[in-house]
Specification:
about 550 residues; alpha+beta; about 55% helix
Length: about 550
């Protein structure tokens, strides 16, 4: 369910006490800064015309790009394979032989990052997704791949000028009074430059890399050829469903290639934040006219980087409140409106001096059908009330399980109806691996997969989990979960009851399921994120010991 823009009803003039009209405001329709460089009037934005058809056409392009091919798209497969093979060979004869496990992982991660960067936009985007997997992928890999977020080699200024002038149809110096030659950041699809308009406004200009569109399409062809070959060969890849991963790449990257869609994503997210009165989050205003397929001019915002905890605290900012606001806004967008920012990471947001979070980069935005939005809502409610059957059924409705899955039998097979028998931190490496193999075997046996919307959702949740560890490591997680659940019951109980027939105002939060998922006993009353990280470190150490023995 898209929030839409009923501008006729939402757009209005504010009248003063004497009946004279005051300045028009856009804060009623979007979570923007208090005083913007221009006023957002969606109906007057010429670049929005026909975007509904563009979005439909873009979505239709993805299946064509990822259709199964009998023959590989030769040249690109050879080039990519050579670079990846060279990286692995260098590691094999280099860092791997040192005997130092940490140095070996660091060396392999560094070489893979370099290979991904050389292979171009699609692989850089894959690296960005991997960089959000803290707690899942090795720390060394996450550290290296974080550099792919905004430390990619930049295009020359001459190339940037050519794209901007071509798309805007004017010489650079007729539109901008200043335009920094060095980008603020450079990533997979585009790079960002600070600039000042001729009219005096301070802006940021996002410019698409030349030739990126054709390269992405060739990469998708190569990936779609190899992905089906991996199905069933590696347990983890089979569970993740490689063809679905390629489909996700296609749908997100192809949409990212048209900055008009990204600008409208900004307006949609801003509208949701305004409707839910989440003013702790701020969306930069896209320019009324200077938006094209390859150029996006937007309001410039400044603040603390997301990991500058010392700077925020010195400025008197409540970092716990920052994370809480982000979590609530993310969940509201997903389960109440079916639209959410699909690429949360530290490079895509920062904290303004007043404590509000500036949310950037809307190239990847999750958009749920109404059925899947309701499934997400049931999953959330089932989790807070420890209703296992509701949660498993919701996962089925999200596409993670086949429609004919026997829910009751799966709960028995996965022992979800039983309390945690052992604390995973007290299990041996062999016991941990045996349990993982048993669960994986059961899931693969019924055809479990990871649908694209769930991938984006989980990736964002992983980021928020990491953000909690950075900004508020000592808050009680159980208290935070209860706080969020109570907020949803109080603020949105009526809509939730109407949508799925479950009234959270009449139900109590049950944390036993959450405790069981962490391997905690029912009598544990609280745990901080710092303590949870310590438990995860123990488990990772056991897993590493098992790998070394093998």
């Amino acid at each position: 369910m898209r929030p839409g823009w009923a501008v006729g009803a939402a757009w209005f003039e504010v009248f003063g006490g004497d009946g004279e009209p005051m300045a028009m405001t856009d804060l009623a329709i979007g979570a923007f800064t208090d005083h913007g460089p221009w006023t957002v009037d969606p109906d007057a934005m010429v670049w929005r015309r026909g975007l509904d058809k563009v979005r439909v056409a873009t979505a239709a392009e993805a299946p064509k790009l990822t259709r199964r091919r009998k023959l590989p798209p030769g040249g690109r497969v050879v080039t990519v394979g050579w670079r990846m093979g060279k990286a692995l060979a260098g590691w094999y004869i280099g860092e791997r032989r040192t005997g130092d496990q940490s140095a070996s992982r660091a060396g392999l991660s560094r070489r893979l990052k370099q290979a991904f960067e050389k292979n171009g936009p699609t692989y850089i985007k894959l690296g960005q997704i991997l960089s959000s997997g803290e707690g899942i992928f090795p720390e060394e890999l996450v550290f290296e791949f974080r550099k792919l977020r905004d430390q990619v080699k930049a295009e020359t200024f001459e190339s940037v000028r050519e794209v901007v002038e071509s798309d805007l149809g004017q010489p650079l110096d007729e539109v901008f009074a200043t335009f920094d030659r060095t980008p603020l950041a450079a990533a997979s699809i585009a790079q960002v430059h600070a600039a000042t308009l001729k009219t005096g406004e301070s802006v940021v200009v996002k410019v698409q890399r030349p030739q990126v569109a054709s390269l992405v399409r060739r990469d998708l062809a190569a990936m779609s050829w190899i992905a089906p070959v991996l199905v069933g060969r590696i347990p983890i890849s089979a569970l993740a469903n490689p063809p679905a991963l390629v489909e996700l790449f296609a749908e997100t990257i192809v949409e990212e290639l048209d900055f008009r869609l990204e600008a409208e994503n900004m307006l949609d997210i801003a509208a949701i934040l305004a409707k839910t009165d989440q003013r702790a989050m701020v969306v930069p205003r896209p320019h009324p006219n200077l938006v094209t397929r390859r150029v996006l001019v937007m309001e410039r915002l400044d603040g603390f980087s997301f990991d500058d905890v010392a700077g925020m605290k010195a400025a008197g900012i409540d970092t716990s409140a920052v994370v809480r606001a982000g979590m609530v806004a993310f969940l509201e967008g997903a389960v109440l409106f079916g639209v959410f920012h699909g690429d949360l990471h530290g490079g895509n947001l920062f904290v303004m001096a007043d404590g509000r979070v500036a949310l950037l980069d809307y190239g990847i935005t999750g958009r749920l059908t109404e059925d899947r939005r309701l499934a997400f809502l049931r999953l959330l409610m089932g989790g807070t009330t420890n209703d296992v059957k509701t949660q498993v059924a919701a996962l089925r409705d999200l596409g993670a399980l086949p429609l004919d899955t026997d829910i009751d039998q799966l709960i028995i097979d996965l022992k979800l109806d039983q309390p945690a028998v052992m604390d995973p931190t007290e299990m041996s490496a062999d016991e941990l691996m045996a349990q993982i193999r048993e669960i994986t075997k059961s899931l693969l046996g019924i055809g479990a997969r990871m649908p694209k919307e769930l991938m984006l959702f989980v990736k964002d949740m992983l980021f928020l989990d990491g953000a909690l560890g950075t900004l508020a490591p000592d808050v009680d997680l159980f208290a935070e979960i209860t706080h969020v659940a109570t907020y949803f019951a109080t603020q949105h109980g009526e809509q939730i009851a109407r949508d799925i027939g479950i009234d959270p105002r009449r139900m109590e939060v049950d944390l036993d399921g959450m405790k069981a998922s962490m391997g905690l006993k029912e009598d544990v009353t609280g745990i901080t994120h710092r303590e949870l990280q310590e438990r995860r470190a123990v488990i990772r150490k056991r897993m590493e010991e098992h790998r070394r023995r093998r």
